[in-house]
Specification:
By secondary structure, this protein is α/β, with parallel strands linked by helices.
Length: 367
């Protein structure tokens, strides 16, 4: 039964009742207190609760890495329910700087807020180290939760941090990171907001210390665990068997081998006991390859003086705007612009159709 019902009465107008409170007043006689049930209000599960359900599901959760509006909308269009906001991708695309701790909290949160606003994806954000000590981590969680994401990853590197697959990493003590995770867990307003804890000690202290730390972080309140830059299939399997909370693994480019973590399929990872796989570098690398290809084709035209028409090399004008949700704008225009405004834009008797040759929006003009 829903938690709330709305009742319309002649005496009190429309009121919302907790179900338990409402049931105490039943039965209500119409001649004493006229009422009717307008509709049940079923509280929609929070983004964090929905993400937790996907993490706990039998099948591995696949999270493509998103970094801007294009990637977020495209991942949603391909049918994914959730995605990972790649901190490296945000730093590289938004600032034009490598993932070495040059991006701050405000820039990171602003990017996350924009991605959350343009899709219904359940987003797991990258909060780097929390930008300071446990107090900073507390406020970092608050900032990202207000931005609309479903969860946040925090890591135990020394700030300024760097990509987990680079040399020169340093880590803080396990005790300090435990306090950061405790602060992060307490900071969340929604108790289901997911805290993902990452350790980078595989490169500095080895496998046993990585497992020890992950379990300490789990006890402190982390919901999802991650040891970055595992160097072998055996290490991944050992970690999965010895940690107390669901494990996430970073598959980087996803469809291209790299010199650190071996490339495995989602099915292989699931068989090892992994609950979540992220692909933080895949779409950024694909985007760069596509842009390189486009510039090379333009250069061919510049060198030859001839037209180069390669529709296979890029999306069309129409597909680009379809991905970006232009139909939603057309629908809003059709619903809310006056007939005079529509006539000025599109001609007498015409419906909103922003794209040349596109089918007009099907919504009816409201009075």
């Amino acid at each position: 039964m829903p938690r709330w019902v709305e009742i319309q009465s002649l005496e009190d107008g429309t009121r919302r009742y907790d179900v338990a409170e409402f049931e105490k007043q039943l039965p209500m006689r119409d001649n004493v207190f006229p009422w009717r049930i307008l509709h049940p209000i079923v509280a929609k599960p929070s983004p964090g609760k929905r993400l937790r359900a996907l993490i706990d599901a039998p099948d591995i959760l696949v999270l493509p890495g998103v970094f801007d509006g294009f990637s977020t909308r495209l991942v949603s269009k391909f049918g994914y329910t959730a995605a990972f906001i790649t901190g490296s991708g945000v730093s590289e695309s938004r600032l034009g700087q490598p993932d070495v701790g040059l991006m701050g909290l405000d820039e990171n949160v602003a990017a996350a807020r924009a991605m959350a606003a343009c899709s219904d994806l359940l987003l797991l954000a990258d909060g780097d180290t929390g930008y300071g000590n446990a107090l900073n981590a507390y406020h970092t969680v608050r900032a990202f939760e207000r931005a609309g994401v479903a969860g946040l990853m925090l890591e135990d590197q020394v700030w300024p941090k760097r990509c987990g697959h680079l040399q020169g990493k340093e880590v803080i003590s396990a005790e300090e990171m435990v306090q950061k995770i405790r602060a992060a867990a307490e900071a969340r307003v929604d108790p289901d907001f997911v805290i993902k804890s990452r350790t980078d000690v595989l490169a500095t202290h080895g496998l046993a210390e990585a497992i020890r730390r992950l379990n300490l972080y789990a006890e402190a309140g982390a919901d999802l665990l991650f040891a970055d830059a595992a160097m072998s299939v055996e290490d991944i399997g050992t970690i999965a068997k010895n940690v107390r909370k669901p494990l996430s693994v970073n598959m980087g480019f996803g469809i291209r081998q790299r010199s650190t973590t071996p490339l495995l399929s989602a099915k292989q990872l699931q068989d090892l006991g992994v609950s979540v796989v992220i692909y933080p570098r895949m779409l950024t690398a694909c985007a760069l390859m596509g842009m390189k290809h486009g510039l090379e084709l333009v250069q061919q035209s510049l060198d030859s003086g001839k037209v180069v028409d390669r529709p296979d090399a890029l999306v069309s004008f129409e597909e680009l705007h379809e991905i970006m949700g232009m139909h939603e704008i057309e629908d809003l225009e059709q619903r809310f612009l006056t007939p005079e405004q529509l006539e000025t834009k599109y001609g007498r008797g015409r419906e909103a159709a922003i794209m040349p040759g596109a089918k007009p929006a099907s919504s009816k003009q409201t009075a």
